[in-house]
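Can you give me the bound-state structure? Components:
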Amino acid sequence: MALTSLSKGRVVALAGGVGGAKLAHGLAQILPPDRLTIIVNTGDDFEHLGLTICPDIDTVLYNLAEVNNPRFGWGRADETFHVLDEARRLGHDAWFLLGDKDIALHLLRRSMLDAGMTLTQVTLELARRLGVRHPVLPMSDHPVRTIIRTPEGELPFQEYFVRRRTEPVMLGMRLAGLAQARPSRQVRAALDAADVVILCPSNPFVSIGPILALPGVRERIATKPALAVSPIIQGQALKGPAAKMMEEQGLEVSALGVARYYAGLIEGFVLDQKDAILAEGVRALGMTPLVTDTIMRDKTQRVRLAQEILRFADGLPGR
Ligand code: GDP
Ligand code: CA
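Here's the bound-state model for the whole set.
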């Protein structure tokens, strides 16, 4: 039964941006690079000013490299905005913010993609240059783009999320490009080799959902011990629209609602101590609950939570 993920098992973490990046960073302090792979959502990606922007990949990379901006949750620490300021002066409607250091990385990504490298190759190369030793894998090399359906029509994800500040009601979503997309070879290999899969505390719909939607991903996870960490605490998201989306989708806005959303896929569910009362409901779904402090305010708390989750994973029933 015991996987001893702390001592020798292989862990795959599925992540979106901020919530996923924090836990991935904690896990990376404990597990060596050959025992932790992070698979990242690319549904938020888009083309802008000639650049391919991968918000979730970059948030994960910047966090693992410890050069992230802790205040914004995106972009680099010690950042300046000279390029964007000048673009504004030249008439650019700068609704999407990119700092100067961030732009440097995007220029390199652009040139590597133009040279024919896959997004996976580009991401691994950028990780190497940032000093990130753990494999960070885009979920797919095929473009998959999240589109939010709203009363005013369909909005590409970043238009909904950044330009419109998630104000429109979300009626539903679709993943453009999904029919042509497959998880990359590296993603399939990592999932096949995994002893445990961790769904990080990321937005279930727009961060974890697109990864799970790729053909073969759910099936692979279903053969492994898997657990999720709730991004919802006391009925609220710490950041972003997860709670609003759950409400608009008619789901119960709570950690239990998140557990129900993942029912059938995972055996373990980590919920915050403030939601301890929901643990019995989690058990009733056939999952083992772990109740703990899931708020990661600093590096110490990220590592502590990661450690606790790995210990919990060791006790989960195998499949
Ligand atoms: P995004 O792509 O940057 O929006 O990031 P994610 O989808 O990865 O993360 C957004 C979710 O992370 C939100 O629902 C937050 O509630 C959750 N989140 C952020 N920080 C924490 C944390 O410290 N603990 C937990 N449990 N959830 C968090
Ligand atoms: Ca995101």
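A couple of observations. Residues 11-144+178-314 form a domain with the Rossmann fold fold (CATH 3.40.50.10680). The mean pLDDT is 96.
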